[in-house]
Amino acid sequence: MAVGPVVASESGKYNGRITSFVVLSCMVAATGGIIFGYDIGISGGVTSMKPFLLKFFPDVYNKRIQDTKISNYCKFDSQLLTTFTSSLYIAGLIATFFASPVTRAFGRKTSILIGGMAFLAGAALGGAAYNIYMLIVGRVLLGVGVGFANQSVPLYLSEMAPSRYRGAFNMGFQFCVGIGVLSANLLNYGTQKIKGGWGWRISLAMAAFPASILTIGALFLPETPNSLIQHNADPNTAKKMLQKVRGTDDVHAEFDDLVAANETSKTIKHHFRNIMKRKYRPQLVMSILIPFFQQVTGINVISFYAPILFRTIGFGESASLMSAVVTGLVGLAMTFTSLLIVDKVGRRTLFAIGGVQMFISQMLIGSIMAAKLGDHGVLSKGYGFLVLVLIGAYVAGFGLSWGPLGWLIPSEIFPLEIRSAGQSITVAVGFLFTFIVAQTFLAMLCRLRSGTFFFFGGWVAVMTVFVYLFLPETKNVPIEKMDGIWKQHWFWKRYVCEEDDLESIDGTQKP
């Protein structure tokens, strides 16, 4: 049943409508974002709970309670504590390179299913943990699940979505990440009040709920037409799926482009080596810098350690967890706003608005903490509330721009022959720098104090300028025609067009 009007892309080539079939399929797949967001939100909350700290990190608890001379910024500085948070991301980094060949050889659906099953196992182990080793192993299994899901879900969404609405569909992943973060914050706030000190077990174990939805749902997910063309000898199977997904029999133009892209991909034997070619230079650069920039916005400072950060500036345990809920609500609302407008106003505009908003917010937060907090002070209620508002403004800017767009842009710019390899590089770089930020933030906060916010704010300024200069607009460009945007760009055309000219003359390729 169709739920939208028949539309064509701006190129006038592709027909299709938004069908209930594709909406339901993408909703199930996007659940992979919930498990990612849930884990981001849950870790910061449980590490601020006294019973959790007493059981697994007694040194941190004693330092925070008993040592009155230690700086506000250093009370949570513990490499073991940060290892609990960051171990998931180093596991995800490794897992994504296994996910790439699985996604390419067996399809997107298989990778999503593996991700859900691994996350289920990790949630069970974390909730039942009785020592630090069980806790860390559980986090590693969660990392394997997130590695497979993050590699396959954005690709699935981009390939299933009509080109005109690809931005909104793909942003469903980041919207689900926001739902996961908010759900984790709400659950932490509730379980923290459970008498007996075992509420953290519920927080960790409840990750199994969204993982169950993803795992069971993956069993019934259809494969994308792109994947069916790659793996099925009968092209009519892929064509019938494309007709069902688009809600129309007139899919000849899009199907022909998919077949042509698949024929090109078959000539590629070494996918990771192929992406190093000169003509793929812009995609390679974006697959590295976009996820790098997304992490050095400093968002994980808020997502992982929001309750700890609010404790640092003087909030109580319950107030800190509730403040994290508020910022989670703001981020979710702005991601939904971005989802509604991204295909109308474009990616570059949202990057610019969000970047300016994030930069100003971080500069003000750093200035207030430098002037009013100090090593042993506490912010007044007025300044504490102002910092909370500014953090909300920062999260809003991220939710509008680098949050969803950091996943959208890489998932839509790769041609089919390097798509799984490109997405793996994107996810791996994201995990690598998420691990680095998670592992170093508490030490950075201890040493740089309020300068931490100036550090991340400086990166926001750099990445905003980078997007303005080097990222072309991808709005309404069909995913199999994306190579054209680089040929028209003032900088990237020298790489893409030059090699195309060489190949058209004698088939050689410039290294």
TrEMBL record:
Lipid bilayer topology: Multi-pass membrane protein
Highest rank taxon of the organism: Eukaryota
Gene Ontology CC terms: membrane
Main location group: membrane
Transmembrane segments: 21-42, 80-99, 111-130, 136-157, 169-187, 199-221, 284-308, 320-342, 349-371, 383-409, 421-445, 451-471
UniProt GO molecular function: monosaccharide transmembrane transporter activity; symporter activity
UniProt domain Major facilitator superfamily (MFS) profile: residue ranges: 25-475
Compartments in which it is found: Membrane
Keywords associated with the record: Membrane, Sugar transport, Symport, Transmembrane, Transmembrane helix, Transport
CDD domains recorded: MFS_STP
One Pfam short name: Sugar_tr
Stated family: Belongs to the major facilitator superfamily. Phosphate:H(+) symporter (TC 2.A.1.9) family.
NCBIfam families: SP
Descriptive protein name: Major facilitator superfamily (MFS) profile domain-containing protein
Species annotation: Centaurea solstitialis (yellow star-thistle)
